[in-house]
């Protein structure tokens, strides 16, 4: 989506105002946000007390090889303090790089993969740590640390239970997608030097 | 523990002051609180990023046929907003009846059992609903509703993942144990009519 922007050339170099640059960045990060597995805003409230997870609605948010179930959530079940997701990543699938100010706990139910974890002290994610995760392990993401969960296995699915505090989740998208960031940087450089 | 109290007769009928009755109740509920699976206060802080759940320390809090693991918690791992437990109940085992002002989510990993759920609108728990739960179901306890999870199966273990908000959990123990409550009521009646 970002690829064609420099060539479009609607706003240029010294003539690109601060407002114009802001709008450009907003459009770019909004495009990236469409990949995020956020809760469905239109889902009906389910007031059942006990719910069978295997019968719950799955979403893939337009991403092949990905499945998301809101086991219990703010919009669907009226939770105010915690939300639980069940997510399955096919071989090679990964979350975007992102961060958030809530607490997040993962429990690996099946498969194995890699946690990529940057530091919140960096404005940009930099070179992340690569930490192997596998069935029956748990890990918590430090608040505001950029991270990515990646099914780095070539054959098996990776299934995780994800617990977040203070739902619905509010992502900080400045580090959502490092590749997108690189493209934004190239794009901005192009525009400023035009 | 409560059984012998009326016979002890240290405080009597019209002579039992409000302070005396308060102390008696405090002692009774403190005795009941010793059955609760709260996090170990002396456990060392584990700073590992990825932890193998199968190697974590189990506790049974002095209760036969019960196992508790703090998968991620306030005291052991510095969590501030969510805490996750893995609990296993042998056949017939159950939690005390209790309630708390935090949110609580259960995910049944193995076995089947019964959720007993009272209403927060009642000063005393009254006759609870009895709701069957089984593998791959989830349920959330409404804030402040008295509840009990019971492995009502005669053969299989019941294993649940428990998620609470705002750790460490603060139990309201006024409905912790309905049987204890009945004993307190009988005890108070005995003392008042002496």
From TrEMBL, chains A, B:
Gene3D superfamilies: Jelly Rolls. Keywords: Auxin signaling pathway, Endoplasmic reticulum, Glycoprotein, Metal-binding, Receptor, Signal, Zinc. SUPFAM superfamilies: RmlC-like cupins. GO terms for molecular function: auxin binding; metal ion binding. GO terms for cellular component: endoplasmic reticulum lumen. Glycans are attached at residue 136. Zn(2+) binds at residues 98, 100, 104, 147. The keyword Coiled coil does not apply. It is found in: Endoplasmic reticulum lumen. Its main location: endoplasmic reticulum. InterPro entries: Auxin-bd, RmlC-like_jellyroll, RmlC_Cupin_sf. It comes from the Eukaryota. Pfam families: Auxin_BP. The keyword Metal-binding applies. Residues 1-41 form the signal peptide. GO terms for biological process: auxin-activated signaling pathway; cytokinesis by cell plate formation; positive regulation of cell division; positive regulation of cell size; positive regulation of DNA endoreduplication; unidimensional cell growth. This is Auxin-binding protein 1.
């Amino acid at each position: 989506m970002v690829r064609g922007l420099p060539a479009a050339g609607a706003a240029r170099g010294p003539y690109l105002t601060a407002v114009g640059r802001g709008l450009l960045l907003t459009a770019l990060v909004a495009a990236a946000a469409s990949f995020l597995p956020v809760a469905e805003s239109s889902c009906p409230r389910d007031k059942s007390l006990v719910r069978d997870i295997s019968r719950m609605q799955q979403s893939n948010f337009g991403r092949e090889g990905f499945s998301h179930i809101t086991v219990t959530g703010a919009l669907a079940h009226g939770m105010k303090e915690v939300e639980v997701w069940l997510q399955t990543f096919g071989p090679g699938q990964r979350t975007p790089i992102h961060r958030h100010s809530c607490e997040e706990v993962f429990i690996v139910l099946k498969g194995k993969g890699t946690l990529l974890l940057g530091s919140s002290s960096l404005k940009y994610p930099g070179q992340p740590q690569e930490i192997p995760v596998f069935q029956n392990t748990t890990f918590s993401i430090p608040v505001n640390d950029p991270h990515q969960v990646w099914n780095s296995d070539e054959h098996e699915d990776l299934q995780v239970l994800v617990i977040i505090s203070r739902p619905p989740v509010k992502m900080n998208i400045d580090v959502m997608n490092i590749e997108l960031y690189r493209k934004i940087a190239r794009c901005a450089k192009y525009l400023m030097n035009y």
